[in-house]
Each structure stands twice: as C-alpha cells, then as structure tokens.
Request: fold
Amino acid sequence: QSVLTQPPSVSAAPGQKVTISCSGSTSNIGNNDVSWYQQFPGTAPKVLIFDTNKRPSGIPGRFSGSKSGTSATLGITGLQTGDEADYYCGTWDSNLSAGVFGGGTKLTVL
Amino acid sequence: QVQLQQWGAGLLKPSETLSLTCGVFGGSFSGYYWSWVRQPPGKGLEWIAEINHSRRANYNPSLKSRVDMSVDTSKNQFSLTLRSVTAADTAVYYCARSLWDCSVTSCSYVMEVWSQGSTVTVSS
Reply:
C-alpha cells in the first residue's frame, strides 16, 4: 500500500498527450515538492522532474510537472514508443520523516 | 560525473542479516543524503532509509526496527544493514544520491543519481 496513489496504467497513441496523476496528502504532496521518475524494465529509475516542475539537463521539454493541492501531475506530449515505461512520483512525507513513492504507472503507447 | 557502485551478498536465508555497501565515485560525499530504495519483483519502489555525511539518518517507519545505515567518509561509502530477513525482503536494492532541503514550510526531495541495483533473494 503506497502512501501516494497513482493509476496502475495509462495509454495513448503516438504523438498524443498523456497525463499521470499522483495523489497524496498535506503531509507530503500538499506541502512538499514532487519528483517524477522513469523506469524501463531491468534498469534503475531516472529523474524526469524535480521540485514539482523542473527538468534535469537532458530531459526533453515534452515532459512537464505540476501540482495542485495534494495532487501532482506528470504530462507527456508528443508521445513516442520509446516513452513506454513505468513512471513513479515521489516526495518527502513530513509526518513520516521519510521519502515516499507512488505505486507506479505503466505507460503504453499504442 | 558521479557514479554509485554497490556490493553485498545476493542470496540469504530467512533470519539472516542483509548487508549492502555503496561506493561513491567521482563526486563529493558531503552536502548530500545517501539513500537506499528497493523494488520487489514486479512491484513498485519502496524507500528504505537515508543518511548524510554527519550520520544524520532517516528511516522508513515500517522497516525502522530492522534497519541501520552507516557511513565511512574516508572511503566515500555508505552501508545498509537489514536484520531478520524474510522472503518479503526479496527485491532489487538500489543506492542513490539524494538532495534533501527543508525550509520551515516545505521540503524539496529528489533522488538524482542511482546505482544499477543488485538483486537480493531470501530463500531457505
């Protein structure tokens, strides 16, 4: 049972846009910044978004992050087949004094 | 370009102690938090613990009674110990470099550099 809630799967066609939601509470998303990670099978996660809406160097502008209240959203535009992966949200939980992740969302590009 | 390389036993019996060490190569050891995350087969990521060079540590409450972290700043290494393992501890374990900065009102937290991970299997 993850502290943050994500949909198990999302899908969209190549070239389209998709959003992945991440729901939490005031002790985590509501008051702290959110990160998003991309993970391909058999590999380590990689940071896509940090501080809710910032992209590390090398991450395309097709990836964006936002937050409203206790929910965060990852947006991916211009979908490519190479975007098929698992996506995780993460943040700090001030009540737990611990890092927390969502359960992950599998993106399928049809 | 900092790289993290981890090592430790990959096969344990129930009730044994898991020990993993992560070496930090090509970057500063101070100024960051050093974390462990695990991923059971076919499941999501689980945050385990973190520690900084001053040995300030935070632990996942669900694992806190069995987990310890330590650092060796002279070797740029940090370690994870998980006692009394069971089959439920079978997972890929990753070490990571984290940026953690809390103000009075909010925290920024990101695990920005990851190791390649190693599989730990608990089986009798």
